[in-house]
Amino acid sequence: MLRGAVAVGALALVVGVSGCAAAVRPPAHSASTQPTPAPPRSTLAPTVAPFALTADGLGPLRVGAPVPDDGTAPGVVEFTPLTCTAEADGGAWVPTDRDQKFIVLTVGAHRSGAITSIGDFSSDISTAKGIHVGSSVDAVRSAYPDATVMSNNSTDIYVVNGTLGHLIIEVTGSASAQAGMWPAAQQNLVYDMRAEPLGDAVHSVANTDAYGVCPG
Predict the structure, then answer these.
(1) Could you give the 3-state DSSP secondary structure of residue 27?
(2) 13 assigned to some structural domain
(3) Rg of the Cα atoms in the chain
(4) Does residue 106 fall inside a structural domain?
(5) 203 lies in which domain range?
(6) What is the bridge-based pairing of β-strands 148-151 and 155-161?
(7) Closest CA to 84 of 143, 193, 5
(8) Quick one: DSSP state of residue 185?
(9) Is the residue at 8 inside a domain?
(10) Is the residue at 4 inside a domain?
(11) Which CATH number fits the domain that encloses residue 106?
(12) Which terminus of the chain, N or C, has fewer Cβ atoms within 10 Å?
C-alpha cells in the first residue's frame, strides 16, 4: 500500500547573486537601449498545455506503464528521489514546471515502476470535456452523465472507465453526512482528479494521507 503525504506544491529555487558595478554612461553617439521585458510565464509548461487528463493518462504518461524514456516525458515530469524509501531509486515523478500541482506515482515508488496514479490538485489541467479542480458537480454530471458514482462520508466519486484506466473525479459532498466536512462555499466542487489503472480499487483521497509515495 502506498502511504505518506507528499507536498505537491511548487518547490522554491533561490539563486543569490552578489557584487556591484559602477554606472557607465553610454558614449554620446550610442543610443541607450531599454531591457526587453521577459515574456509572461505560462501557468503550464508548453509541453503540458495541450494535454487533457483522461482515464488512460496525461499526454505521454499512461497508467499501468512506466514513465517513458523515449524523450517524450522530459519537459513534463522529472524524477525526485525521496529519503523515505529504502530503495535506491525510490521517489516520485513531479512536474518539471514547479507551478504545476500534479504528481505521478509508480509501483513501489521506483523510477522505472509502472504508473499507479496521476493525480491533479489544481485547476491548471482539465479533462477532455473541460472539467477541472473547482468545477461544479453539475458540470461533472453534464460532462459525464454515464459515470459511476460512489459516495463516502465526505465526497462523491465519479468514475469514468477508459481503455487502460479510470478517470476518477472526486467532488466535495453536500449530503447531511458530508456537509459537516466542508464549508458551504466549498461543497459540490471538484476536489481532485486522478487517472488510475483499471482493476485498482477506487478510493477517496480527500481528508486522508492516502495519496503518498512511500511504500509500507
Answers:
(1) coil
(2) no
(3) 21
(4) yes
(5) 38-211
(6) antiparallel
(7) 5
(8) G
(9) no
(10) no
(11) 2.60.460.10
(12) N
Reading across the β-sheet that carries 91-95, which strands appear in turn? 77-81, 91-95, 102-106, 115-120, 190-197, 165-172, 155-161, 148-151
Helix (H, G, I), strand (E, B) or coil at 107: helix
Domain count, the chain: 1
Write the single-letter amino acid at 70: D
For residue 105, the one-letter residue type is L
Global pTM reads 0.72
Query: Residue 120 corresponds to which cell in the numbers above?
Result: 491533479
3-state secondary structure 121-182: CCCCCCECCCCCCCCEHHHHHHHCCCCEEEECCCEEEEEEECCCEEEEEEEECCCHHHHCCC
**CA-CA distance, 169 to 74, in Å (whole number)?**
27
Q: Please report, for residues 23, 27, 36, the alpha-carbon distance to residue 32 in angstroms, rounded to integers and kept in the order given.
A: 13, 9, 13
Task: List per-residue pLDDT tens for the chain, 216 residues long.
Answer: 333 333 333 323 222 323 333 333 333 444 444 544 433 333 334 445 568 999 999 988 999 999 987 766 766 888 888 755 555 668 888 888 766 678 899 998 888 999 999 999 888 889 999 999 999 999 999 999 999 999 998 999 999 999 999 999 999 988 877 878 888 899 999 999 999 999 999 988 887 765 554 544
